[in-house]
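I'll show a typical protein example:
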Amino acid sequence: MAAIILRGMRTAFIVSSAINSRFGMFSPHERLQDTLGTVDSIRRRAPGAAIYLLDMCGDGLQPAQTEALSAQVTRLFDYSGLPDVQAIYKVPNPDVIKNLTEMTCFHHFLHAQEALLGKVDRIFKLSGRYRLDERFCWSDVGDSQHRGRIVFSGRRASQFAPETTGNDPAANFQYMSRLWSFDGCLLGTVRSAYGQMVERMVERLNAGGYIDIEHLLYRFMPQELVAFRIPMGVSGRLAPNAMEIRE
């Protein structure tokens, strides 16, 4: 399906990455190439969109990596130097590191770079190494049913017991976070939710439990503002086992 340009619609993609991560099956070289593929898929499926790449790894980018990525995106942010990222990177659990660094850096970006996003109509959050595929249709997000909405691929049941997440059993659900989007007018709402998400995860960890981004998105994004699009049109391989995902 060819990309469809929406006249007058300003779009931004915020892509998260961890190029030099020591966790998962993929080498830094593979992660770099996959992330360049992510960026290329945005260029092909959403031409004209701004692309902000946020590398969130505790081990910062090497000069050659920075050069390769900077040449392909609107702006590159290396958050390895943030004190919070360095503190989180000392945690022994890789799942905690992944979730807390991504939430912390995304929240930081929404605060510090508001000027970049203030005039954007639709903001996408896309996980690096995944790619927009032939099912992604840019025109769908300009539809009236998605204006003023946060769009996810659907609601899914939790794989964790409520005792682990600390959620009410009747609300132990999650939204997938590989690709989702929100109307630019909801920037403040999403930023506030992410602040609450970080606080909640720290609270659960201190209580001996666990929770991740997907469950926190369900808990803190206002339900009355959420809409679904199935499929989202994103594909890629999971870091722990390289299993191919299409959503």
Summary: Residues 1-7 have pLDDT under 50 and may be disordered. Residues 13 and 124 are 5 Å apart (CA to CA).
